[in-house]
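Fig. S4 source data, part A: sequence.
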Amino acid sequence: MSGQQLDLLFEDAPAPAVGEVSGRRRVIQLGQELLTYSLHRSKRRSIGFLIEEAGLRVTAPQWVTVPQIEQAIREKQRWIVSKLAEWRSRRLPTRIDWREGGKLPYLGGDIILRMDGGLRPTCLEGNELKLALPGDASVDRIRDAACAWLQQRALEEFTDRAQVFANRLGTAPARITLSSARAQWGSCTTDGVVRLNWRLIHFAPGIINYVVAHELAHLREMNHSRAFWDTVQMLLPDYESSRRELRQHHPDRLPTA
């Protein structure tokens, strides 16, 4: 039996800051478009913009009026529209079409499913995943074959990245294993066993790096103290952006669950 473990659960949106009231949904006219945003009040000194799953989140000081806030939105209109489009384009599909020509999210992009007749092992050629299956293979066979390949690649990718971070950390995990957890991305036990959700293979490398670095940091700090986050930053200086992006996803909503 393994010892205690720390888990990287799905990180929901951060809790409201001190003095912040519940957000209100508002609508603003931007040219020919209507933009819905949520407004949150806080003790911060300036107006802040955040693109999240629900859309645009605006945080503003108590003394700033709604007209002033909406003027700031109009001034930032091009940035906001661009970031909303960018975020939506990165979202994973809610389902995968398990057939010839179907798209499969892989390392932040899409690869195309192709049936290769079963004459050679499954392999990735360019952006085409050629499955060792006949053209009339069932949906279940296509899904099982593709997911088996994804899991194999996940273990290889995660292990390679863990080795890089272990070299920086000066200590290595006892073992890297895959998980199919429904509510966490990874975990690390006091015995040094690191488990990583194989569905991370759908995401861009930056997100994978963050989860791997997070778990390996627990080899030094089995907590979420300031020392722990300093260790994460030492391993991955720009981890914050990937951490924010990961918050937009939940393991239970990924397409191959």
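Fig. S4 source data, part B ends here. The mean pLDDT is 83.
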